[in-house]
Design goal:
By secondary structure, this protein is an alpha/beta fold. Helices cover 46% and strands 15% of the residues. The protein folds into three domains: 122 residues, Rossmann fold, CATH 3.40.50.10800; 84 residues, Rossmann fold; 78 residues, 3-Layer(aba) Sandwich (Rossmann fold). Helix 1 packs across helix 2, helix 2 packs parallel to helix 15 and helix 4 runs parallel beside helix 5. The longest helix is centred in the N-terminal third of the chain and has 21 residues. The chain is globular, with a radius of gyration of 20 Å.
Length: 329
C-alpha cells in the first residue's frame, strides 16, 4: 500500500499464523472481519487494547496490543500514551486502568464482567477488619473494587503478594480477600497473615483428587497451579505461581505434557506459542471473562462506551494503594 501499511489481507494472514494451532480455519473466517475492523478503529481512536491472560486466543493474540496478568496490565496501563484504553478483562481491571490514567478514556466492553473475589468483600468489611486487628496494615488483592482498594494500605497481585507483604515491615498483615492466596502467602513468609473468606469461582473448583486421577492416566504429567486454588491442589502440584509465572515456567521448562490449573483460555494462548508441549485441559471457564468478545470490543471502540469512571474521593485513595504496589520491586 502507498503509505507502507500492510494490506489488510496480509495483516490478517500474519495474525492467523499466531493462532492457527488453536483456531480452525472455518472459525477464523468468522473472526477475521471483526479483527480487521478493530485494528482500523484502534488507529483511528489512538487506542490500545489490554487483554488479560484469560481472554480467548482471537482477542489475546489478534486484537490486543498489550497482554499479561493483573500486575502486567496495571504496569502497562500506567505507561501507555494512548488516548483510549480498552480493557479486555473484568471490571476491577478496567477500574485499575482508570485509576492510573484519570485523564484517559477507559472502556470496559461489558460492565457485567465482574469477579467473584471482588464481590466477596465490601469497604465496610475492610473497616471492620481494621477494628478487629488494630495497627495491622491492609494488603488488598487487585481482584477488588476501587472502593475496597481505597480502604487498604497497598495492593498486590498473585505475582508479587509475598514481596508486598514483606515490604511493609510488619509482624501481622491483613490480607484480603482471597483465602487460598492468603494461605499460600503465609507459607512463604514469617509475617502473620489475617485472611478473609473470599474465593475465585474458577480456581476453587479444582481438587487434589482430580489431579491425582490425571496423574494416574497421563504419563509424565507436570501440574502447574495458580495460588488461588485450594491448599490440597497446591500440595499436589509441581509448580505454583501467578498466571505470568505459570506461562514463564512452561516456556522455560517445556514439559512434554502439562496441566494448567487455571482458566481455560490461558492453555489455548500458551499452546499457540509452544507447539512442542501437549496441554491436558480439565480447565474451568470464567463466565465473567467470557463476556468480553471481539464484537463488544469493536462496539466499544466505535461508540467509546461503556466508560469507566471512579468517584474522585475514592480514586485518590485507591490510586495511592495501587501506586505503592507498583513501587515494590
Amino acid at each position: 500500500m502507498p503509505d507502507g501499511t500492510p494490506h489488510p489481507l496480509a495483516a490478517a494472514s500474519a495474525l492467523y499464523r499466531k493462532v492457527e494451532r488453536v483456531i480452525p480455519p472455518f472459525e477464523w473466517a468468522m473472526h477475521e472481519p471483526t479483527i480487521l475492523e478493530i485494528q482500523r478503529l484502534k488507529q483511528e481512536r489512538n487506542a490500545v487494547v489490554l487483554a488479560h491472560n484469560y481472554q480467548t486466543p482471537e482477542i489475546f493474540h489478534c486484537a490486543a496490543d498489550l497482554v499479561g496478568d493483573s500486575l502486567a496490565l496495571a504496569r502497562q496501563a500506567a505507561e501507555t500514551d494512548a488516548d483510549v484504553i480498552v480493557l479486555a478483562g473484568v471490571h476491577f481491571m478496567a477500574e485499575t486502568a482508570k485509576l492510573l490514567n484519570p485523564e484517559k478514556i477507559v472502556l470496559c466492553p461489558d460492565l457485567a464482567a465482574g469477579c467473584s473475589l471482588a464481590d466477596s468483600i465490601t469497604p465496610e468489611d475492610v473497616r471492620r477488619m481494621r477494628e478487629e486487628w488494630p495497627g495491622a496494615p491492609v494488603v488488598t488483592y487487585v481482584n477488588t473494587s476501587a472502593a475496597v482498594k481505597a480502604e487498604s494500605d497497598i495492593c498486590c497481585t498473585s505475582g508479587n503478594a509475598v514481596q508486598v507483604v514483606e515490604s511493609l515491615g510488619a509482624d501481622r498483615v491483613i490480607f484480603l480477600p482471597d483465602e487460598y492466596l492468603a494461605n499460600y502467602v503465609a507459607q512463604q513468609t514469617d509475617v502473620e497473615i489475617v485472611s478473609w473468606r473470599g474465593h475465585c469461582e474458577v480456581h476453587e473448583r479444582f481438587t487434589g483428587d482430580e489431579i491425582r486421577q490425571y496423574r494416574e492416566g497421563v504419563d509424565g504429567l507436570v501440574v502447574v497451579a495458580h495460588p488461588e486454588c485450594p491448599p490440597d491442589v497446591l500440595d499436589a502440584s509441581d509448580f505454583v505461581g501467578s498466571t505470568a509465572q505459570m506461562i514463564g515456567y512452561v516456556k522455560s521448562n517445556r514439559p512434554g505434557r502439562v496441566l494448567l490449573l487455571t482458566e481455560c483460555s490461558m492453555s489455548d494462548n500458551v499452546a499457540a506459542e509452544v507447539p512442542d508441549v501437549e496441554f491436558v485441559r480439565p480447565c474451568n471457564l470464567c463466565p465473567h471473562m467470557k463476556r468480553i468478545t471481539l464484537q463488544n470490543i469493536r462496539q466499544s471502540l466505535e461508540s467509546l462506551e461503556p466508560r469507566i469512571e471512579v468517584p474522585p474521593e475514592v480514586a485518590a485513595k485507591a490510586r495511592l494503594a495501587v501506586e505503592r504496589m507498583l513501587a515494590v520491586k
